[in-house]
Structures are given as C-alpha cells and as structure tokens.
Amino acid sequence: MKKFRNNLFGSLLSISTFFVCTAQRKTVEQKVDSVLRLMTLDEKIGQMNQYNGDWDATGPITKDGDKQNQIRKGMLGSMLNVTGVEHTRQLQEIAMESRLKIPLLFGQDIIHGYRTIFPIPLAEASSWDTATIRLSARIAATEAAAAGVQWTFAPMVDIARDPRWGRVMEGAGEDPYLGSAIAAARVRGFQGKGLGNTDALMACAKHFAAYGAAIGGRDYNSVDMSDRTLFEIYLPPFQAAVDAGAATLMNSFNDLNGVPATGNRFLQRDILKGNWKFKGFVVSDWGSIGEMINHGFAKDGYEAALEAVTAGSDMDMESRSYINNLSRLVKEGKVKIQLIDDAVRRILRKKFEMGLFDDPFKFCNKEREQRQWNNAENLRAEKMIAEKSVVLLKNENHLLPLNKQTKTIALVGPFVKAVRDNLGFWSYSWPDDTVRIVTQFQGIENKLGTNARLLYAKGCEINDSSQAGFAEAIEAAKRADVVIMSLGEASDWSGEAKSRSNIHLPGVQEELVKAVSMTGKPVVVLINAGRPLIFNWTADHVAAILYTWWLGTEAGDAIADILFGDYNPSAKLPISFPRTEGQIPIYYNHFNTGRPATSDSDRFYRSAYIDLSIYPKFPFGFGLSYAEFTYSNIHLSSSSMRANQPIKATVTVTNTGNYDGEETVQLYIQDLVGSVVRPVKELKGFQKIFLKKGESKQVSFTIDIDKLKFYNSQLKYQAEPGDFKIYIGGNSRDLQEAPFSLK
Ligand code: NOJ
Fold first, then answer.
1. Which is the closest atom of ligand 1 to the Cα of 153?
2. Fold classification of 384-582 (topology level)
3. For 4-36, what is each residue's pLDDT tens digit?
C-alpha cells in the first residue's frame, strides 16, 4: 500500500483504492487505459514532452526553475541528461507532486558505456562477435541503470557507406546483415532480461531512417535514395532492432526524398507502426520537430507539431512544439484526440512495463550505484572486448607479436600517453579519468615491467604543422630495437557533427612515420580513429599496422596484450577503407553495371576512375591474425535447391600458421540474374571458429530461401528462381566460390 502512495493514485484516494484492489489483476493495457481516462488533454500532451536537464552545483535545474513547475503541473513526460541517483530522485519527487503522479523517464546517450567506457560501436562491430557486443551493452545498462538512467538513446543502427560522416563511429558499418545481427545484440544487451528489471535500460534504435546516407557525408544533410535501397540496405537493422524488442525508436534529422524523417508518415506510420507492428514509442531527435521549419516543411511550430504528430512522432525532444501547439491543434480539430491518445498510450505502456508506476524510485538506489562505481569485473570485460575489436591490417615478416624480451622499445606519437583520447566521442568524463584510463604507455609498461627500456617521444601533436619534435623521435627510434608509433585523429573528430572532408591522418603524422622509418628500425603503427582513415604511405611501407579505433578505459592493457602476443587479433573490418576521398562511397555490395571493371588492368571504358585502383585500400570483412587460415574444399550438398529444400554449403578451414587463433568465416551470395539488378555479393552468414595451430574444421552454412530474397521491381520481398553463386572466405575479397540454382 505504501508503494502506491508514491504513485499515480496516491493523491486520489478513492480512485487509488479502486486501483490498488484491481491493479494486480489488470494487464498493462488495462492499466494504461485506466490512467488515460483520468488525464486532461494538457496532461496527455505533457507526457509527449521531453526536456534536457540543466544542472549546476546547487540543485536540480536551477537555471530554469520553470521546468520544475512544469514537472509539477504534469507538463513533462521525460528528461534527458539527468543522471545520478540523487538528481533523478530529486526530479522524480517533483513529479510525484503532480496531480496524477505519473513518473518521469530519464534518458541518456549510453552509447558505449557509462562508467566503464567500452570500444566505440564501430570498433565493437569489428569483433563480429554478437555475444560480446551484447555483453558490452549489458554492462553499460547495468552501470547506467544503477545511476538512475532508465533509457538509452542507443543503439545507432544507421548503415554508413561514407567515412566522412562523423557518426560512422556510432554504428556497425556498411552492411545490413552484420548491422542487423549487431542491432539485435545491442537491444538485447541493453534490455537484459526485460523491462522492469532494475538493470534494464529501454533501448532506442536510431535514427529512423536513412540518416547515415547524408549526401556528401555532411551531418544532418538530405538523403535521396530509392525505395529498394532503403528497404534492402538501410531499414533491415531497424527491423531487427524492433524484432529484438526495442522499446523505442528515435527519428532523424534528415529529410528522406524531400520529407523530413520526423514528419514522415511513410516511415513511421506505414512501415514502423503499420507493417512492423511496433508497439513502443518514437521520440524525435533533439529539436527535430522544430527543425522542420528550417527544412521548409512547416511554416511554424504549429505546423511542425501537426506534421510530426500526424506522422507518428510520439515524444518531442526539446523543440517544445508539442507543448506549445498540440492543445490548440486538438481544439481546432486539426489533430484528432485518438492520435494523442495513441502516442500517450505508447509512452505510458513503457512506464508501466518499466515498473515505474509501482515504484517511481526503483532506479534510485545509492547502494547499487556505489557498487557499480568501481566494478573490477566490468573493467576485465572491457579489456576482453577491446582486444576483440582491434583489426590487424598488416604484419609483414611476422613482425608481430613482439618478443617480451625486447630490450629497448621506442614509443612515438601523440597517442602514446593520451588519456581521454582513448575513449572516443559519446563518453563521459569522470574525475578519476587520469587514474582509471590505462594509457598505451602504461599498458606496455604494465606488460613488460622492468624487462624493457621504454623510450618516449611524442614527435608531433595530432594536428601539428610543425616537425620540431621529429628529431627527438628519430633519436629514440635509433636507440631502440623496435618502434611502436601511435597515431590517429582526435577522439572528438568523429561523432555527431564531426564530418570531415579530409580523412587522411591529420597534420604531419604521416611525415613522422616516414622520418622514423628512415632509421631502418622495424616499425609497428597503431591507428586510433573513429572512422576509416587514409594512410597510404604508412600502409605501403610500414611492416605492421593495428587499427585500434577507440578502445575505452582499458585501451592500454588491451593493446599491450596484442602487441606482445597474449591475445591474437581476430577482428574484421565492418566497413571498406577507401584509398582517397574521391573513391567514396566505396562498398563491397555494389551492382555490377553494364561495364564492370574486373581488375586494375581492365578498367578503361569501365565503371572505374582512370586515375585510381578499382579496389578499396582494405576491403570489408578484412582482418589478419597471427595465425594463418587457408580455405579449401568448398562444396554444396546439392547444386540446386527448392524453396522448401535448403542446401548446405561447407568449406574446410585450416590453421596453417604458428599460433592458435580465431577466424570469422564469411558467407556471401550473388544472384546472377534478377528482375532487378543484384549486388555482386551480399553477406548472408558468418561464423566465428577457434582453431589450434595445424587444426582443420569444416564449417557449414544452411542456404535457405530467405537468404535469396530481395525486393523485386514491385518491392515485393521474394526469391526468384535462377542461378546463384556462393562465396566463402575470410573477407569480402578472397573467396572460394561454388554455383547453384534455385528451381
Ligand atoms: C542528437 C543526436 O542526433 C542523438 O543521437 C542523440 O541521442 C540526441 N542528440 C540526444 O543527445
């Protein structure tokens, strides 16, 4: 009974008594309806309104005391960027002073960790390890939920084919199949055993839709694409997120073929809430309802609110278009009350499922918050996940792993002693960051102890134009047995609004590599970045390259494990690496065209540049290991299949190297002739296997009809009889193939 005093029905005693007696027996839908019946129009609109929290040392939202009054009046359903048990409790207490005592929802961008920072999502995607990715989201959710957060604005499931776009770092790369598997894993990780548990966050798949296809890679830009590309490439990860139970979706800033996503009925009403039967709610992106005025799609906030609510945007993040206009729109008959009720019902449903009506303070537990603050187990998991995220791009003459007995090692570059630059965009600062985050220097020192002499020279800053520090770096290199150079882009150069036209290694860093290489010492390069960078000289001349992305709190220890052979790298690129910006967009699952270029010596009068290779610098799916894997004996259980008779494709993988190791076996399919043209290959399966040195394993994939389906000229999703090829291998370029047909 006491619990209920704190909730919606505590103040209205007679209603409360009725509710308490029947609540247990009611379904969530009945509970939602019974609340809805009590609400005034203004209270309903309040639930559709979300504000950012402004905090200062003296208490909650003191910069805008009016927000507190609005909460008290029931004019606010949710807040973002308010964390910590103390803060969320203070605001929830104010919500409990409102007439109906509807609890607030607290949302935050928990993108790759909260207290423990995990690798950026693109790095984690390189692991192709959905169990690991799920674990990372699980831990992030546990830590954030212990700090009063109930809802994360993640995962970002936008496909990205343009590395100039700063937000490639937040997603899973260019492929819809891999992207869908990872989207589902992240949703399941965040939501844990289900909403209602105190360690589960509501997930929010974003940005619906096609935000990753911004023209020219400029953030927030327009998107112009065919329905087929939308359905085949950009929507599948969203559908996978919905199927995995994502509680919410966020729409996006871009317009799609002329209609802003926020006001797009086709996307939100027809596809999401219609075809996919999504029962959660849609939150706008920050201010995106109001931004439809800038788009030239709405004259003012009144029209913007009308377009957005009609299109199916249920909650307004920070534009205040709903709170200022919806009531008038309803009273003037422009918006039917059923639309408002539908949006509010969706929001209340989640609040009930979260158990917030039973106990609005269930996420406010100081002791739990404290327990998660320094959780050593989470740090161990972070290190393991970081190791799985590092891609070995080159390893000539088996330079790696380095011998732990190496006497003198020169550590050169602007990232060797970097602290927060190990984390990447969308990570939180904590007062003890300098103690907690393991720098790369520390990691190597931890690994080697006093065995080795470590020489350090920064060489240059990240975006330096000066070579003044080169002499010291060259001197250190000369005195060393091996040089480890740590280079890259600043961690806030990727992320939201961080588009770059030039994605080369910044400043004079590549000049530094040349200068250090001139010493003739063996050089290992680590590249820290949130996107594929261009570093052709380094790629062509340096013996060993590890693409570390941004690895998080334990970056230094994870990198040291890989450098010195305590972990054998296993990651594979989830996105193609271009040779120049002029090659963008470059992606592996392109069409063949009428004049396909087949090699660099066959590219004239072909769909190719006359002055550039047809190949990316590093292809999708690529990544080496200290082991070596050979593929042989590809065969099919039958060379023809029927819709109801799947066939099996099998390949033998052998570890012919000197180390035990993990390989990601990738399956691609090509439909040779279709009623619409089909990609040269499409990822349709992958498996991770572990092979001891000398060991062989047979790996099999089932090819069923679903793997052959596509959107035909009528946009019907179906397979067409005819000829196909399957390809299996360790990346999208080096593959074994076999033909088959669908009867
Ligand atoms: C804008 C970003 O586009 C979105 O991804 C994020 O969740 C919101 N801001 C809230 O921070």
1. 7
2. Rossmann fold (3.40.50)
3. 333 433 343 334 444 444 545 689 999 999 999
